[in-house]
Amino acid sequence: MQNHLRTAVVTGASRGFGRAIAAALVAGGTDVVGIARNGPELDAVRGELGPAFTPVAGDATGDALAEEVIRTRRPGLLVLNAGATPPMAPVQEQTWESFSRNWEVDTRHVFAWTGAALRAPLAPGSVVLSVSSGAALGGSPLSGGYASAKAAIRYLRQYGDEEARRAGLGIRFVTLLPDMTPAGGVGEAGVTGYAARTGVSREAFIEGRQPILTLERIGRAVVELAGTPDSGPEYRIGGAGLSPVG
Ligand SMILES: NC(=O)c1ccc[n+]([C@@H]2O[C@H](COP(=O)([O-])OP(=O)(O)OC[C@H]3O[C@@H](n4cnc5c(N)ncnc54)[C@H](OP(=O)(O)O)[C@@H]3O)[C@@H](O)[C@H]2O)c1
Predict the structure, then answer these.
(1) Which residue has the CA at smallest separation from atom 42 of ligand 1?
(2) Does the beta carbon of 222 lie inside 6 Å of ligand 1?
(3) Residue 135 lies in a domain
(4) Is 19 domain-assigned?
(5) Closest residue (by CA) to atom 29 of ligand 1?
(6) Residues 6 or more apart from 234 whose CB is under 8 A from it?
(7) What's the pLDDT score for residue 219?
């Protein structure tokens, strides 16, 4: 096994994409430290995946948690996946608080862990893989600040990569931009919201977006990208698989 894949941190590991990514990494022999706020949900993942999964209940947006986990666990892979479910409403029905929710969770936690990874620093050969969204490319008019928060995550990848290069750290930064899928809680809210907006049933909306992205495919894609030293910087992922951005 490649050295950097011995121990990984996965944020948002209790449900949806994060749980599937943790399962795929554990299946490949990686020890995973899984972070989410709901302790019992994380414990259920531990029950399913066994001792290779270590639950750490906490808010992933905290700088102190990021620094402590990196210092004590020495991960070679960070999968920055945690995210809030955006409030589904058009802009005129959003409040500033609802509009900025994904900035406060998704972007803030990638900011905290990117800084901590550079300051520690992670060992040469390590990988920081952040989960953005296809919405970062085309917008998402029902999701408040979601698309812009996910676009900021793309910039954080670029900034992290630049600083790592300048300091000769040998840390690889990658961003994944998944298509909307009801397989995760965030996509489930999106599918329900956009189906209602376009006046079709949830089932018809999903049928119109086949092939739909599955949790298994997300898990496999993260393992593949983490293990490919010469990967590109950014990939979309949908039901048909990975494709480089740009
Ligand atoms: N599903 C999609 O269609 C889709 C498409 C593109 C991108 N994405 C992105 O993929 C990621 C995962 O989405 P998902 O659909 O799998 O979501 P999900 O099923 O709702 O899971 C979200 C995970 O994030 C955790 N989380 C939320 N806030 C947190 C915080 N402050 N600190 C620590 N953990 C936190 C949740 O646990 P707790 O609530 O217990 O903390 C949960 O484990 C998100 O970043 C999302 O934006 C999803």
Answers:
(1) 12
(2) no
(3) yes
(4) yes
(5) 82
(6) 132, 154, 157, 174, 175, 176, 177, 244, 245, 246
(7) 98
Bridge partners for 237 per DSSP: 178, 242
- Could you tell me the two tokens for 31? 């020890």
Q: How many CA atoms lie within 13 A of 132 on its CB side?
A: 32
For residue 10, which amino acid is it? V
- What is the position in ligand 1's atom list of the atom closest to the CA of 20? 16
Residue 246: its pLDDT value, please?
Answer: 85
Q: Whose CA is nearest to atom 45 of ligand 1?
A: 83
Query: Is 207 inside a domain boundary?
Result: no
Q: What is the pLDDT of residues 69-112, one digit of tens each?
A: 999 999 999 999 999 999 999 999 999 999 999 999 999 999 99
Where residue 79 sits, what CATH number does that domain have?
A: 3.40.50.720
Which residues are within 8 A (CB) of 12 and not within 5 positions of it... i.e. 6 or more apart? 18, 35, 36, 60, 81, 82, 83
In the reported structure, the alpha carbon of residue 131 is separated from the centroid of ligand 1 by a whole-number distance in angstroms of 9
CA–centroid distance, 220 to ligand 1, in Å, is 18
Q: Given the structure tokens 């907006």, which residue do they identify?
A: 197
The answer, yes or no, to whether any atom of ligand 1 lies below 6 A from the CB of 178, is: yes
Q: Ligand 1: distance of its center to the CA of 215 in Å?
A: 13
User: pTM score, two decimals?
Assistant: 0.99
Task: Give the residue numbers spanning the domain of 159.
Answer: 3-180+214-244
In a domain, 221, yes or no: yes
- Specify the 3-state DSSP secondary structure of 32: strand
Instruction: Please give the tally of structural domains in the chain.
Output: 1
Asked if residue 209 has its Cβ within 6 Å of ligand 1, the reply is no
